[in-house]
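Journal club prep — side note

Before the paper discussion, L.F. wants everyone to see what a predicted structure for a comparable chain looks like in token form. Sequence:
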Amino acid sequence: MPLEQKKTKYPLLRVKLDNIRKNAGSLVAECARHGVNVWGVSKGISAFPEVARAFASGGIKIIADSRLDNIRRMREAGVALEYALIRIPMRSELEELAELCDYTLISDIGTLEALAEICEKSGREVKCVVMFDMGDLREGFWFKEAERTAAGLAKFTGKMKIAGVGANFACASGVLPSARNLTELAACGAAVEAALGRPLAIYSGGGTGSFVMMRRGSLPGAFNNLRLGEALLLGRDTSFGMLLDGLSQDTMRIEAELVEVRTKP
């Protein structure tokens, strides 16, 4: 059947790529004014390469996703950016992680040891953001054990690099980012820096909820990275329950075929 005669198949997701590109540009520029760089989170729309290209056109340099299959698909589609895995990896996928990712979140010494060995053997470099649990109970070293954790990280050198610290908020248990818990996270980073004897490149303060804090002027100054998905794709923040001024919420629409309408008693 000629292309122009193909029937539309429902349900259908229509994505307004130009509005997502504009959101990306606005977020990158606003965050840069606060000394913050943006990881564009693609998992919310299954990492469609077209959306990844819209991120790139808006100035995103690093795309973050929770699935290695998604990252592979974007790489194979020619989206030539850096990539981050934003969930802690399974041991069984570390070889693939080292092949596909420039960054990963990680929070287990044994996993770090295994990844370090893979990186040394393969010659590939992976930069690790060490996650601390600030109370949301998702993943991470417990923040009150930061000094002991930092001491365990001191041995890691070479191709697998400890690049920074981070945390998740408003996820498993709904703990929101705050000046208090982010200040405690910054202290975890300081402990890691002391153990490594060098500064960390990344202090990742969370996601769109932490972007709201940045706008309000309450994001502690140590933080230079945010992992933004909801703001990029939807122009809103569920954590604090608001639409984000200056961003488009008109980014996508689901269409379906109406099959039946009846009035019944």
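L.F.'s comment for the group: DSSP finds nine helices and 13 strands in the chain. Keep this in mind when we get to the figures.
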